[in-house]
Every structure is written in C-alpha cells, then in structure tokens.
Amino acid sequence: MVHFPKGMPIKVNDIYSLLLLQFVYKQQHSKLPEIFSDCFVTRDKIHSINIRGKRNLHIKQIKGNIGHKSIKVTGALTYNDMPVFNKESRTLKEFSRSAKSYLLSNSSG
C-alpha cells in the first residue's frame, strides 16, 4: 500500500513512480525472486574503467518507441534521476520515505 501525506494532491504518475522505484530498490538489494536478478545492472558492472555515474543503472539501447516505456528503461531512468543519498537508504521503509519526498518535491503541480 502507498501512503502519502494527508491533504496533499497526489498524481497517479507519482504513485506509479514510487512503486517503480521500490521495485528497483528491491532488485538492487536482492529482495526479489531470482528471475529479476539481471533486470537492472549498475554501470560499474559493465565498464571496467572508472566512469562518472558508475552507480547509476545501465540503460540498454532500445529500438522503437515501445521499448522506451518498458519497466527496465523507465525504472532505470527514474532511479538514476534520484540523488545518490536517496539511493543509499538502508531499508525499504527509509528509501520509500525519501523517494516520496523526492517525487513530491519534483512533481509539477
């Protein structure tokens, strides 16, 4: 269940983004079934050199418009946009709290 502060207007996109971010967080912390283990891969696992944004998720090149709407792409893009300190949360609860704050502060009202 998703809880946002009472009395605050919430967009469906914000709820979707929060659930998507929680999914990515769980995958990155091995809290999902094995079938999702290679769904998102950090850039440092792909490149052997020290690159900027090495802890960001790698986004594979996609052909066509439909692929850009996939969970793999939108999840990685949304997660990569978050500040690093939000991604370093130790628990899902802590991450969800910081993700909500991030989404509400970046929501165009």
Give the topology, please.
Elements: H1 12-28, H2 71-81, H3 84-87, H4 92-106
Overview of the structural elements:
The chain has one domain (12-103). Helix 1 packs across helix 2 and helix 1 (12-28) packs antiparallel against helix 4. The chain has 109 residues and is mainly alpha-helical. The chain has helices at residues 12-28, 71-81, 84-87, 92-106. 13% of the residues are buried.
List keywords for this structure.
109 residues, mainly alpha, 4 helices, globular
Low-confidence stretches: none
How many strand segments? 0
Strand content range: under 5%
Q: What is the number of helical segments per DSSP (H or I, 4+ residues)?
A: 4
Order of helices and strands: HHHH
Task: From the alpha carbons, calculate the radius of gyration and give it in angstroms.
Answer: 14 Å
Give the biggest sheet.
none
Alpha-beta content class? mainly alpha
Silhouette: globular
* Integer count of domains: 1
Distance between the termini: 23 Å
What helical percentage do the residues reach? 40-55%
Mean pLDDT: 86
Summarize the structure.
Helices cover 43% and strands 0% of the residues.
